[in-house]
Amino acid sequence: MQGQVSERTGFLFEEAWSDVDPESARITAFEEARQVNKLIMIASESVAPPAVRAALSSVFTDLYAEGYPAAHTTHESEALIGDIPYQIAYHERYSDRRYYKGTEFADLIEALAQNRLRQLFAPNRYSRNAVQIGPDEIQANVQPWSGANANTAVYLALLQPGDTILGLNLSHGGHLSHGSPANLSGKIYNVISYGVSPETGRIDYDQVEQLAHEHNPRMIVSGASAYPWDIDFARLRKICDSLPRRAYLLADVSHPAGLVVAGLFSNPVGIADVTTFTTHKTLIGPRAAAILTTNESIARRIDRAVFPGLQGGPHVNTIAALAVAFKIAQQTEFDELQKTIVANAQALAETLARRGLTIAYGGTETHLLLVDVRTIPQKSGVPLNGDVAARILDLAGVVCNKNTIAGDTSANFPSGIRLGTPWITQRGLTPDDMRTLGGIIADVLLAIETYPHIERNEVAARGKIAPEALKQAQAAIADLIRRRTVGPPEPAGWPEKYCPPPEQIEGRKLIEIAGRRARAFLDEATSGNVWALDAGQAISVSLFDGAGRDLGTLGILRRSADEFGMDHFVVASDAGR
Ligand code: DSN
Q: For this structure, is 8 an active site residue?
């Protein structure tokens, strides 16, 4: 049936995904199972609701729509945007600002997304915000493909190459696109970094002020990727305004955007010249970004910088998904979700601190926290690093990322791990569950033993955990997921997902061990000279545990290498061991 013209539509390639491409469908099914069977605590990730995903795979993916919607639609009410006879009559008479025809509905979907976004971020939604700005005073661009693009477009709109910008140091929780030397922003502009005060664990606003007066930046970039506190945009605004040549203030609220919408994080709109954010973190939308400003002239420059300055055609399907996500974010349940996200992060931080772990920056008032794993005492004297900690937590069923914290010099082996609560809160976990989860995470982190390993003439810190401790944590996570989370049922085939269970022959378990390092592994792990085995040969070896206790004998048979050149061995062991 593959490649045949469909009788239904007359198109080619109309088969189901798993028929047209079983390989990619299978990989995706495993990813689906992973998302159900692990607790995902990557602070920048969340679950896009099915309606958002449906919009992403809608027919809007088929379009080119370079340009922007007709000017009149961008400030019309939602009811008028949805008045199709009126809109089409208008379009037929005046057309629009796009370079291609066929974009009349793309115009409407983009206008809808812009309209909803302006409503969501109007600071006067919440009385706690000092600035009173209504939706009509906000200009929104919803075309950036992602966060780094949004920030780059703002730089392109407002700066000249070589201009000085002030941004939060990457290792203190800043973002690549805020002036890291590895990013375009760090190559084109003269970057001065500010940091977090070791005394307060908060951004050192006095240092920002002092650096600003010393270097006269054209822009102060605020916002962070791995920093747990609210940001004082008003103070930064004052610093910008106090300079001889008033600096622009950019607020990148990618991480807390959902919290801003729910009134749980300061809203920079109307204080900062420009606000940027991604839409797939706490905002639980599709992978994309948006730019807001209350200044019309800046808005025009930003529109030109996004297109044609930086990007070509917008991803209209993503814009449709943004419209859906912004509708979802208008609901009171969304505000409740954001409140629980923060309460969960705080309960988790408290639990971990009670178990003696060091919470970097002293706590959290947002959706994320950082644990300084280097401070966990180690018998070997080799400090634990975030890379090893995150890898072992992943094996236990908790997915997080290694992260630099203030004072770190290596991004590969930083001192911290970052834990975020959006995804697990969406799955229904509560602050009570955080106490259980915090206990499991602490058990794992405290059970890791480091050891030194020589790598390229340097001592690298490796880590290991006793199998019993790991198994206990895996079982506790699985139990928590089963008992306490909502979401799709466990997909079939899990947990025998990656490899089949061992075969049994005459009371012995047969385990296949294969791969590039299979030979080195078996040689290292057992008493036999596995290197000397030819294909078809077998030996009997002994196996010892960490304390040198004899675990019994194993038979090892070397098989022929497979088509990829990987070694294959069959290991026969006593069942039950
Ligand atoms: N990489 C994202 C994060 O995890 O914070 C930011 O772009």
A: no
Element (H, E) at 520: helix 518-525
d(CA 199, CA 201) in angstroms, rounded, equals 6
Kindly tell me if the per-residue pLDDT of 445 is higher than 90.
yes
The alpha carbon of 281 and the centre of ligand 1 are apart by a number of angstroms equal to 9
Least confident of 80-94, 239-253, 457-471: 457-471
58-91 pLDDT, tens digit per residue, is: 999 999 999 999 888 878 899 999 999 999 999 9
* Predicted pLDDT at 494: 59
* Tens-place pLDDT, residues 371-411: 999 999 999 999 999 999 999 999 999 999 999 999 998 88
d(CA 417, CA 47): 21
Neighbour order of strands in the sheet with 358-359: 358-359, 368-372, 416-420, 401-403
pLDDT tens sequence across 315-371: 999 999 999 999 999 999 999 999 999 999 999 999 999 999 999 999 999 999 999
Q: Whose CA is nearest to atom 6 of ligand 1?
A: 225
Residue with CA at minimum distance from ligand 1 atom 2: 44
* The two structure tokens encoding residue 516: 């590039």
Count other C-beta atoms under 10 Å from residue 361's C-beta.
24
34, 202, 235, 287: the active-site residue: 287
Mapped to the 3 state alphabet, what secondary structure does 427-450 carry?
Answer: CCCCHHHHHHHHHHHHHHHHHCEE
Task: Using CB atoms within 10 Å of the CB of residue 546, give its burial: 0 to 12 exposed, 13 to 18 middle, 19+ buried.
Answer: exposed
Q: What is the 3-state secondary structure (H, E, C) of 7-33?
A: CCCCCCCCCCHHHHCHHHHHHHHHHHH
Residue 235 annotated in active site? no
Report the separation in Å between the CA atom of 514 and the middle of ligand 1, taken as the mean of its atom positions: 35
Residues near 142 by Cβ (< 8 Å), separated by ≥ 6?
110, 113, 114, 117, 288, 290, 314, 319, 322
- pLDDT greater than 70 at residue 517: yes
Task: For residue 37, give the nearest of 499, 502, 501, 485 by alpha carbon.
Answer: 485
Go through the chain and tell me how many residues it has: 577
Q: Is 287 helix (H, G, I), strand (E, B) or coil?
A: coil
Measured from CB, residues less than 6 Å from any atom of ligand 1 are 44, 147, 175, 225
